[in-house]
Structure formats: structure tokens, C-alpha cells
Amino acid sequence: MAANIAGVFEENLQSAIQAAKVLVVGAGGIGCELLKNLVLSGFKDIEIIDLDTIDVSNLNRQFLFHKQHVGKSKAAVARESALRFCPTATIKAYHDSIMSPEYGVNFFKRFVIVMNALDNRAARNHVNRMCLAADVPLIESGTAGYDGQVELIKKGLTQCYECQPKAAQKTFPGCTIRNTPSEPIHCIVWAKHLFNQLFGEDDPDEDVSPDTADPEAAGEAGETALQVESNEKGNVERVSTRSWAQSCKYEPEKLFHKLFHDDIKYLLSMDNLWKKRRPPAPLLWGKLPDAVAGSSKNEKESTLKDQKNWSIAECADIFAESCRNLKNQLESLKENDHLVWDKDDKNAMDFVAACANIRAHIFGIPQKTRFDIKSMAGNIIPAIATTNAIIAGVVVLHAFNVLQDNLENCQTVYLRPKPTHRNQLIVPEKFLNPPNPKCYVCSPKPEVTLCLDVNTMIVKDLEEHVLKKSLNMVAPDVILEGKGTVIISSEEGETTENNPKTLAELGILDGSILKVDDFLQNYELTVTINQRLVPKDGPEFEVVADPSQLKPKEEAESSTTANGAGDQDDDLLEVVEEEDTIVTDVDSKKRKTDGPEGSISKKIRVEAEEDDVIMVV
Questions:
Q1: Which of 175, 315, 323, 451 is flagged as catalytic?
Q2: For the whole model, what pTM was predicted?
């Protein structure tokens, strides 16, 4: 079946469609719908890129894929399937990451339109910057459950993807995760931290060991018996969980005994924790319950595997198998490398599901199926095929306007789960959103103020946590202005000796200016250092795009916390993401009324396609 658009569109649009070279980034739920729409609308020159392979869980909504395609490249199979709709189209597929160096500014300049169908913020940030650098219109889209959004990003005309700050992610107190979990999500977060400690990139802030510094555990004297014992022994060198696990060769029984017996006994010794709550019950490897109410042994065999309840004995078996497999995966990597948790990796998901359920059982918390845990750990709001289809259709309508240079008709469009007072489910904005003049990405002279303690922040953390994770760079180069000192180089090994040094050791002090350049993104940023002591239990650093937002120390300490504590209107709708929190863009202080009843028209910003959102609160 070939696309025949003669008589459907006016002649100039037909010509523009057939001559246009377009790039689709992402071949998931929206990507499949989008690719189908493009070929049936007459687009002849399409390139599509996606790093993922097809999983069984994709088949209920990504209709270009079928059971025989499981394990294959999404981009390649999407191309083959789309060509059946229009064999005369030219479609090129890339099974790769759009963030790879091969796809630089010149790659993006080859296209008249780029269309995002992504499921993570890091890639969205990167494509946003590449399209700004190449001056190519970007049509951004996303869905989360029944919510959806499409917006045009055009350099100098509209706000970019990073013009509006994202809300801080929802977190849980560390002492709750380590000592007194009370909800399944606490056990799941703990299990993910454990995965990172054993197999991933270990973060001291994610320690899963019992927390003796928990204020609730302290007695009348202000400290626990364990702390007293520790103080009497003096400074005892602690062995990391990773080192200990390696020393015992990741033996499942030893790991189990430490995590679910010894550490629990350790917690029980903190008497104050259990005066008003149920104490945990340590487990022994050889004495595990092999059947519980609702366990898989009592269920029909027809029950879907992921939706069966596991007994604790089954959890232990799955824990043991996943430990052995993850150990083998880790050993196959080069030295000092680590695994990255992925909800679609069977061993990683099995490990987290088993550990979370075992810990839940210990603390008397209801257990969850693997399916439920995957949804919570992977931050999923169930994807709705219809939502993807509607949003993909709006993306193509925006593409038509871009090709006809009718950019003023490309207002941001929101798909809502419930009709407005005007009985609208699809709600367009009245005007294009102009660029934020303070944006540190698309403003003429991007700059930020970085608040931190130069005496404690080391160069490696500046690169990994600030520049890459917080400021979304890929391969930054950093020079200290005035002295010309190269602090960080994207050339491997060139500045490795700087990694463990503090900023102060390299002459970076209060008021210092860093010139940061990311060659791949064609992005330059000026960073002004603001010396500030790190508050206890506070963030290690703060990035401020508008220096006028800097507050005196006294005011900053009493202001709203990063986690959103403080005054908020009740109608704030927040979509929480675990690794890179994304939030619906509801500006409650600038709400508008557009009906006789003065009803509120919410502006919902959905920035996840289907796989990176956990809940709406």
C-alpha cells in the first residue's frame, strides 16, 4: 500500500511533504504511531533512531512490533513495518543512542524537522540543544497515562525544552529507607540502592546499612548503645558493601544472611525504634516460608508470570539466581566499570523485586507482584495506546504547519484525561510561549551561578554531578577564566590527575568564573562560583540561572526546601520521576480564568512518553 496524497493536501504542502527530510528520535509508543502517520501522509525521506530493543511488554501498544520481533532493534523493525504501508518511502534506521558523538550538529542540519518521541529527560535535553545549535525546528511530544503534550521548539521564537526549571524529585528520608520502612515503595527504593551498592555506581548517600545516626533511635542520652560502642572503639575503618560482597564472591547465602538477618538484628538493638511500631523479624536462609496467602503456589497456573505473588522461599531462589547472573555480568565488564539498573533487564528487575518483597515481609509490609514492583521501580504510569495515537497525530499536524512556515499555528497542545468546562479534551494554548530570557541554554549569553563549597567539592563531582547530571552536558571542557587553567578536558586522560582535587586546590574560589564548552552540543556556558558552606542534610550544590534569585544565608535557610515543602496551592499536579523528576507545569500563581464561572484552565506539561513516570500526587 503506497501513500497517495493527491487531492488530500493543497499542492504546495504536497510538494513540501515529499521533499522534506525528517528525523524521528524514538521508536516506542509515540514513535510507532508517528512513523506510520508520516509515511501515510506522504513523507518520503525519513530517518529514525532508537537505542532500545523490543520487549514483550511493548507489544500491547507499539503496533509495528510483534512477538517474533522480541529482542530485535526497535528502529530496524519499525522501518521494516512502516515500509509495508508505503514501499516507495526511503527510511533509514539507526540502532544507536542519539547522544553518541556521531550525531553532531552537522547531522541535525540535514533535516528540515526533528520530532522527539523519547522517554527520558537526558535525551530530550540533548536533542533540544542540538536542534538549537543547528537551528532546526523541533517538535517535542510526550504522554503519561491519559495526559499528553505537543510543543514546537524553534530557536529565537519559542521557549526551549530547558527554559522552565523542573521540580526537584520526590525523595524519602534516608533513615526511613534504612531503618523503618512502612510502605512497599520504601522497600523498593532500598532494593534499588542495594543494587547500586553491589553492582552499580555506589553512592554513599544511598547506603542501605542500618542508620545509627537516626535521631529517632537515640536514647535519653542522645545516642544509641551502638554509637557508644562505636565511639569507644574509636575510628574503625569501614569496609564498603561492594568490597565485602566481592570478598565473599557474591555468595547468595552470605549476602542474604547479612542483609536479612544480621542487619535486621542490628536494627532490633535500637530499642527506641520499636516502642510504638511492629519490630522486624530476621530471616534465616534455611527456614523460609514456602507458601503464603496468595502466593504463586496457591494460584492458577494461568496467572501471568509477572502477576503472581511469590512466597519468601521463591523470592530467595530468585534472589540467589539473579545475584549469580549479575555477578557474571559485572565480571564481564572492564575494570572499574559497573552495571546500570534497567527495569527491562531481567536479572536487575528480578533482584529488586525479590529483595523488596523479602524486606517487606520482614517489616510486615504487604508484598507486591513483580509487575507492580516494575511499575513502581521503573516509574511507570501505564501507557495508553489511544493517547499515543492522538499525540502522534498532533505532531504531524504541527509538521504540516512548519513546512508551510505557519509557525504561529504551532501553539503547545495538551491532551487531558477529563473535558474542560468547554468540553475540550484537546486544549491548545492561545499563543506561542516566548523564550525565557534567563534560560541558561537558549539565551544569547548562557550563564549560571553555582553555589557550593569550594573546599569540599572535588573536580570529579563537578564534572559528573553538576555539569553532566544537573546541567545536562555530555563531554564538557572547563577552563578557569583569567588563569587559563584547564580544569576538565573531554580528551580522555588529559586532566585525570585533577579528579580528586578540590576546586580550591586548583584556584577556584568565591567569584571565580569558569568557561564551560561542550563541543558535541555546540554549547558554551559561563559559570560563576558562589562560595557557600554545605548545610547539614542539604544539597551539595545549587545551580541558579538568575543571579537575582540568590538569597542571603538567613533567608535561604528559612525558605522552601528543594523537595517542595512550603506553601503550595492544592491544585498543583505533579508527575514524579525517580531519577530525573519531571513535573506538570502548573503555574498556580499565574492561573487564568477563561469562562464565565471563572474556572481554572490548568497548563499541564507532560515530559515523559510512557516509561519514566511513577505517580501523580
A1: 175
A2: 0.70
